[in-house]
Backbone:
């Protein structure tokens, strides 16, 4: 919808065009009234004069008012202007008032409806008629009279040309401004559409990023936690089965005592496994809630990264069996919270893969603080795997499926996404029978630098 100032401007221009269209009739009427009022014409000649006035008005109305489309036809307009100039001449002969007032119509239509040099022909003819009427006839055949006559005609032609040119320039500038305003409106509409499109894309991208974040967090908390719980419950199930089998095979008193002692040990292990499963369930429930609220890992809230990794590896070794050696090198310093969270999650994922797939006896975890980088290395002496297909396909769902039904493919993808999102690199080296090495390098962005 147009703005109020532009709409007012359009209305004013429409009114001006209407007034310009009425000018010929006003000038014709004024010339007629002045002719009657001043008795410039004998009454006997008035009926013919009024008939010529009516004929002229009808001509103008037919050519410009009744058929406005004819203004785009040059030959029709040339005939109309020529006829109009003749009518001006006839009326000017009858009264000088027609030359003084209505003669202006000849200038107006000559410049407006004719093209090129024909404009000057029409204006010159009109000027010659009006000057002749003012002078009472053609000039005397003397140089001074002829020069004076030509001077007045030339002056009128020059004035009409100058003012008409100024009017055309003003109209062109007005049209250009109107086109500029229309282009600006179109640009604004396009920008509004583009802005709306960008908002939709931003919302879609945000939703996609949030889905990826939640997928990574669910994998690193719920999925790994459920795997740990299943592992503990499977161990408890084996302990209970061993105790039941021993009880069924006892025959002597001494044997019964040994079986009872073994059963008690198995029950103790069963209770420990169940207690570990319950604790893991509670811890991972808390981690899941923290993931939903986009909070960092709980271990990093109460301990530095090396201490949190030391506790994590020790707990993992207690629950899963293989011995883990953790080492931190270089000057320890607080890093950006996202960097520390990614490193912690990377260790969790790497150890989870070792527990599910590697069959390792020893695991080494090294955290190295360098000047510009912090590097995490996780190595194991397990069965390894084939990496010829590339880092993204080191574990396929068929080859990486454990007893718990979990797969390792998304875990490595999630780890790589986390690392590369922060400008880091992830390298995985492995061969069948030689173990696996996972190395993640991230920019060592300090908390103070990230805050700036």
Residues:
């Amino acid at each position: 919808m147009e703005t109020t100032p532009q709409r007012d401007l359009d209305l004013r221009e429409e009114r001006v065009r209407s007034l310009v269209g009425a000018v010929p009739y006003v000038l014709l009427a004024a010339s007629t009234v002045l002719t009657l009022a001043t008795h410039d014409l004998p009454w006997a000649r008035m009926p013919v004069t009024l008939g010529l006035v009516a004929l002229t008005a009808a001509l103008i109305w037919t050519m410009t008012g009744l058929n406005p489309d004819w203004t785009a036809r040059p030959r029709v307009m040339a005939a109309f202007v020529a006829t109009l100039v003749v009518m001006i001449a006839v009326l000017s002969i009858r009264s000088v008032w027609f030359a003084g007032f209505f003669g202006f119509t000849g200038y107006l239509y000559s410049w407006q409806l004719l093209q090129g040099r024909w404009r000057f022909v029409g204006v010159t003819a009109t000027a010659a008629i009006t000057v002749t009427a003012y002078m009472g006839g053609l000039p005397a055949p003397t140089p001074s009279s002829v020069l004076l006559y030509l001077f007045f005609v030339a002056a009128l032609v020059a004035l009409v040309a100058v003012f008409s040119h100024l009017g055309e320039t003003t109209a062109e500038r007005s049209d250009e401004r109107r086109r500029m305003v229309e282009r600006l409106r179109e640009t604004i509409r396009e920008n509004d559409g583009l802005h709306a499109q960008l908002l939709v894309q931003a919302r879609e991208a945000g939703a996609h990023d949030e889905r990826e974040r939640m997928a990574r967090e669910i994998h690193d908390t719920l999925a790994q936690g459920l795997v740990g719980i299943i592992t503990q419950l499977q161990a408890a199930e084996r302990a209970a089965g061993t105790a039941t089998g021993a009880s069924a095979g006892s025959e002597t008193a001494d044997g019964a005592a040994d079986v009872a002692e073994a059963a008690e040990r198995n029950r103790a292990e069963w209770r420990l496994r169940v207690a570990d499963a319950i604790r893991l369930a509670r811890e991972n429930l808390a981690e899941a809630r923290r993931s939903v609220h986009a909070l960092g890992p709980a271990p990093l809230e109460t301990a530095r990264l090396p201490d949190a990794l030391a506790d994590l590896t020790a707990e993992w070794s207690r629950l899963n069996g293989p011995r883990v050696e953790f080492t931190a090198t270089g000057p320890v310093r607080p890093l950006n919270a996202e960097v520390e969270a990614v490193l912690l999650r990377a260790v969790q994922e790497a150890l989870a893969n070792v527990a599910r797939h590697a069959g390792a006896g020893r695991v080494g975890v090294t955290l190295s603080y360098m000047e510009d980088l912090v590097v995490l290395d996780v190595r194991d002496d397990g069965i390894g795997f084939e990496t010829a297909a590339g880092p993204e396909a080191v574990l396929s769902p068929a080859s990486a499926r454990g007893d718990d039904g979990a797969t390792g493919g998304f875990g490595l993808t999630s780890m790589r996404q986390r690392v590369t999102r922060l400008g880091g690199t992830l390298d995985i080296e492995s061969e069948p029978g030689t173990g696996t090495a996972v190395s993640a390098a991230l920019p060592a962005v300090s908390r103070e630098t990230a805050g700036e």
